[in-house]
C-alpha cells in the first residue's frame, strides 16, 4: 500500500469510530467515551497487521460489530468496549484475558473470554470443536448474557461480508448461523437481526431458492405497496376520527419464512397468501396502551372480517422474549387474508431491539424480568455441562424456536411452556422433585396420559408418589430441554445404581464358574454379548437380562478354544460377507458420485434420513464406523452436521446419472372423479416410460389422496413427471416425499 492509501484508510477508520459514538442508542457519559476510546486504541494496535479476506483492514470488523451492538441492539458502553475487543485475545498472542482484565476490569475480561474460541482440542473425530465452542459460549450465559448478544452481532457482520470467502466456508458458516445463532437471536427478542441472519443463511445454503424468491418478491413489490395504500385509505378515516396518533406500514415476510411456508404447506410462491403483514404503530402513554390497542382492534374488525382462530393476544400475556402485540388475521381488500399487527411505539421498539429497549421502558418498581426468567429456566440445561458437547448444544437449542402456550397451576398461576409440551414438561418446570415423583396428571379435572399434549388455557395438576421414578418412555413424552436433561440424568443415576449391584452379582456368579472378574474377562464379556461398555454389561446382569444360562454360554466359549476359534471364523465370515457384497454393489451401482476437489470415486452409502437421488444437491459426511454417508443439502440433519462436524463434511457432486434407476415416492391430492386413476397411470407408464412400483389411493367425500412409488433415472425426469401430473384435471397438489 502507498502512503496515500494508508492515509485514506486511517481517515476511514477514524470516521467509522466517530460514527460508532454518534449512533449509540444509549446516552454515553464522558467515562463511557473514555472506556470506548481506550478499547478502540487497543483493538487498532492488536489488529494493525491483519486484513480480512476482502483486503480491508481487520479493525473495520470489530468497529462494525460494536456499531451493531450500539445502534441495532442498544447495549451499554461496557458491551461496546467488549465488542471492539472481542477478537483481540484470539488473534494476537501479545494479549491475554488477564491483560484485558488489568486494562478494562473483570466484567469486560469475562465477556471477551466468553467470546474467545477454543483454539485446539485433541484430534478426535468424535470431538466437535464447533460444538465445544458453542458450549463455552453458552455456559457464560449464566454470568453475562451480553456474551451471546455480542456474538450474535459478530455473526451478523460476518454474514453480511462473506462474499469473498470460499463456497464451502460460506456454507459452513451459514449452516452454523441457521442452526444456533438465528434461533438464539429469536429467543433473546432480536427479531430484526434474526430475520436478517435467516435470509443470509438461506442465501449461502440454498442460493438458487434464495435468488428465485428474492426476484419474485421484487416483482410483486409494487402490487404490495398499492395494497397497503388501499388498506390504509379504508382505515384512515375511522382511526383519525378517534384522534389516534399512528402510522400504518407494510412488513414483507422474510425470504426464509416464505421458503419455510412453501416447504411446510407444499405450495408455490404464488400460493403463499400472507407474503406481508400490515403493522399499525400508535403513540400512547403506558396507562392507555392496552385500551388503545383494543380500540384499534375494534376499528380494524369493523372494516374487515377477522378470522376468529387467528387472534394472538401478546399484550395480556407477553411472550417470554418480552414481545408484546396484538395479531389478527382479517379478510382484507380483494378478499385476501392479511395479518394485522397492532403495537405501541414502546412495543415496537422492544420487538426490534429486544431487551435493551425493555430496560429503557422498565419502571424501577417492576421486578418481573423475562430475560432473567429465561436464563433461570435454562439453568438446569447449562449446569448439565458434562454431556457430549453436540448433545449439549442440541439440548440447549431444543426450545429456542418453539411457540408458546400458557397453562394454569391448580392455584391459578400462569406458566409458559413451548407448544407441544406434555404434563411431564409442566411437572419438571415446577421442580425437579415434582417431575421425578410424577405418577399421573389431571388436565381440566380429567386424568390424562403423560404423553398428552397441553393446550393454552389448560389447568394442570400433577399427581405424585414417593415410589414413582422415571422410565425411558418419558423421553418420548417430554419436549423441553429442562425435562429431557433431568430425565436423562435421573435414568443415568438409576442405571449406575443397578450397574453397581449387577457388578457384585456378576462377581459371585463368575466365582461359581471359576472365572475371575477382571479387566480381561469384562472386555471378553462385552464383546461376547455385543455390548458397548462395561456399564451396559453390569446393568444387564443387574436387571436379569444376562442370566445364568447366558454366563454359562460365555464360560463354555472361553474354556473351549477350538469352539471359540470356529465361532470366530463363522462370525468373521458372517460379518465380512455383507461388506464384500456391499463393495461389489458399490462398484457396480454407486459410481455416479465424486468427492472433493480431486473428484475422487469413493465408497459410500446413502443416508436413510433424506434418500437422495441423482440431480439432488448432496454432500458426503464421514462417519466414525460406517464410512461416507451421502445426504441431500436440504436434509433435516444437514444444518446440525454442518454446524457441529464441518471438518467431516466432503463436497460431493453427480457426474453421470443416466445409467442407474432410483426409487422415489410421490404424494397427490385433489378432487376425485371417474377415470382419474387411469389418467394418472397413463401419464406415468405410457407417456413418460417411468416404471411404477406401487400405487395407493384413498377417497373421502369427493377428495382423494394418493401415494405412488416410481423408479426414475434422475431428478430432472422426476420433476418433469410431477409437472405433467399437475396438469391432470382435478389434481390439486403433487409433492415428492
Description:
It is built from 29 helices and 20 strands. The protein is of the alpha+beta class. A hairpin with a 5-residue loop joins strand 14 and strand 15. Helix 12 crosses helix 13.
List keywords for this structure.
737 residues; 5-stranded mixed beta sheet; globular; alpha+beta; 6-stranded mixed beta sheet
What's the overall geometry?
Answer: globular
Uncertain stretches: 120-126, 364-368, 573-591
Helix content: 40-55%
Calculate Rg over CA atoms. 30 Å
Counting DSSP H or I runs of 4 or more residues, the number of helices is 29
- Please give the largest β-sheet: 6 strands, mixed
Which structural class do you get from the secondary structure elements? alpha+beta
- The number of E-state strands comes to 20
Mean pLDDT level: 81
Organism: Mesoflavibacter profundi
Domain TGS: 403-464
Function: In eubacteria ppGpp (guanosine 3'-diphosphate 5'-diphosphate) is a mediator of the stringent response that coordinates a variety of cellular activities in response to changes in nutritional abundance.
Pfam family, one: TGS
